[in-house]
Amino acid sequence: MTASKPIYHFQVGDRIEITSVELQDVMRRRLLDLGFVPGAVIEVVQKSPLGDPLAFKVFNTTIALRKEESSLIYGKKVYKEVV
C-alpha cells in the first residue's frame, strides 16, 4: 500500500485517490464542493513550466490549483482503472 502524499507531488497522467483534505474554512468548502473529497479519483492533466499552478481533472472538469492549496490535499496513486 502506498503512503499518502500531497497531490502536487504527482506527475501529469497520474490518477490519484484523495485520502484527506487539510484545508480550512472557505477554501476547504469550495474544494469539497468542486469534488476534492476523500475517496474521489482525480487526474493530473497539466503542470505549468515552473510547477505552479497544476491542473487536475475532477469529474470531467479541469480545475487549476496553486501549490499552496494542492500541498494540503493528500492522495495516493491509483494503479488500476477505476470503474
Based on the model shown, name its key terms:
83 residues, SH3 type barrels
How does this model look, in words?
One of its GO terms (molecular function) is transition metal ion binding. InterPro entries: Fe-transptr_FeoA-like, FeoA, FeoA_core_dom, Transcriptional_repressor_C. It holds the Pfam family FeoA. The longest helix is centred in the middle third of the chain and has 10 residues, at 25-34. It contains 2 helices and 6 strands. The chain is globular, with a radius of gyration of 12 Å. The protein has one domain (5-77): Roll (SH3 type barrels). It has helices spanning 25-34, 67-70, and strands at residues 5-6, 15-21, 41-47, 54-58, 61-65, 73-77. It is of the alpha+beta class and 83 residues long. Helix content is 17%, strand content 37%. A 6-stranded antiparallel β-sheet has the order 1-6-2-3-4-5.
Average pLDDT across residues? Answer: 90
Count the DSSP helices: 2
First-last Cα distance: 20 Å
H/E topology pattern: EEHEEEHE
How much is the radius of gyration in Å?
12 Å
Strand content: 35-45%
CATH topology: SH3 type barrels
| Number of domain units | 1
Protein name: Iron transporter FeoA
Organism: Virgibacillus pantothenticus
Keywords: Iron
GO molecular function, one term: transition metal ion binding
